[in-house]
Amino acid sequence: MACIDVAGFRYCxxxxxxxxxxxxxxxxxxxxxxxxxxTSRIIGGTIAKIGSWPWQLSLQFRGSHVCxxxxxxxxxxxxxxxSLSPTNWKVYGGMVSLNSLPEPYLVEKIILDENYNKxxxxxxxxxxxLKSPVTFNDKVQPACLPAFDQNxxxxxxxxxxxxxxxxxxxxxxxxxVDIIDTRVCxxxxxxxxxxxxxxxxxxxxxxxxxxxxxxxxxxxxCQGKSxxxxxxxxxxxxGCGGKNKPGVYTKVSRVLPWIYTSMHVSxxxxxxTKG
Length: 275
Prior knowledge:
GO molecular function: serine-type endopeptidase activity
Helix content: under 10%
Structural class: mainly beta
Protein name: Transmembrane serine protease 13b
Keywords: Disulfide bond, Glycoprotein, Hydrolase, Protease, Serine protease, Signal
Strand order of the largest sheet: 10-11-12-15-14-13
Number of strands: 15
Oligomer: single chain
Radius of gyration: 17 Å
Organism: Amphilophus citrinellus (Midas cichlid)
Mean pLDDT: 82
CATH class of the domain at 157-253: Mainly Beta
């Protein structure tokens, strides 16, 4: 079993981590994570059905949708750091249209990855701690976090979703995309070395399908057995669905140590140090 040491703790290669973490962060590895409650999907840049992507959230500021988010436990949401500068956010989940919103979840705190680089978008990830835990139901469920060494090969078909911009409409959209090898994504014809080890590319090199149909902070999920794993967080790209310009996502497996440590600190209310 592969393990990694972070801030004095050892994390091993599954999203269930260690017994102490189960106690500190309830339901990080919920038995029903990554499961769709709706078995029917409309694929290819079209409207999602209720329950298709129950971890998809809308992050709103002053009554307007700003970016997407991903539910990973009853208390925590992942999103993109570049989207989250203001305060007083509200989080909505369990719907497929911004025209019919449920009661919001309020945000207690926002934690940005301290290594986030605004210039390169490296480690573009943020963690939101909710004031009250989410109650899971058929419409609201967490995505599974991947294992540290869980990789999805070049060409693997995955899915991204999002509410897009207000100009594009208010419905939750979904689209299939393919994982693209980082070497291909860093080639001269694509992004010329701009994709770091903390990023992952997905889309179609021929164009036409992109996370532009979703929005920043939303999920890139891939299916493993009967569950969906959060492989990426929508981060950046060049244009929308253009040839040789796929979407670029924060690679979740690369920021797992930061996620786990930040969740632990938030729950315990203490600073983790090596000792």
